[in-house]
Amino acid sequence: MFRRTFWFTTGAATGVWATLKAQRAMRRVSPEGIAATAANRAVDTGRRALLFAQDVRAAMAEREDQLNDALGLSPRDRPAELPGQRAKAQLERKAARRRPAGRNPYHRNRDLKEDH
In the prediction, which pLDDT does 4 show? Predict the structure, then answer.
């Protein structure tokens, strides 16, 4: 009697476990499950990339300080900005002068009046 009860309970528990396992697997391979997995992995990859970029910036700053110390340069001797940054700022100022203020030239409905 106890033997039958034991094996019946064991079989029922195994059936419940297998059913739950199968349902989880089906959810994982459903379109929503795949989308959720992809989104989670994308977020994790973004976090890892951000941490990597922060580590690279910190290492660059440390190495730059080491080189400046070795060359005897002080923060006052360094250029305030790179030449490329200066040229970019000049181009942006020229483009701003050409564009009329307050209007977006790329707006499709700029000539239409909208009543809201």
Answer: 93
Q: Pick the closest to residue 84 from 92, 94, 76 (CA basis).
A: 92
- Cα–Cα separations (whole angstroms), residue 33 to 3, 13, 17, 58, 77: 41, 26, 20, 38, 56
Q: Which comes out higher in pLDDT, residue 101 or 65?
A: 65
Residue 95 or residue 11, greater confidence: 11
Position 28 scores a pLDDT of: 87
Strand segments, DSSP code E, in the chain are none
CA distance 24 to 72: 63
- Contact status, residue 71 vs residue 77, Cβ threshold 8 Å: no
Q: Is the pLDDT of residue 20 over 70?
A: yes
Of the CA atoms within 13 Å of residue 34, those in its CB half-sphere come to 4
Q: What is the residue type of 60?
A: M
Closest CA to 20 of 8, 10, 12, 32: 12
CA distance 41 to 74: 44
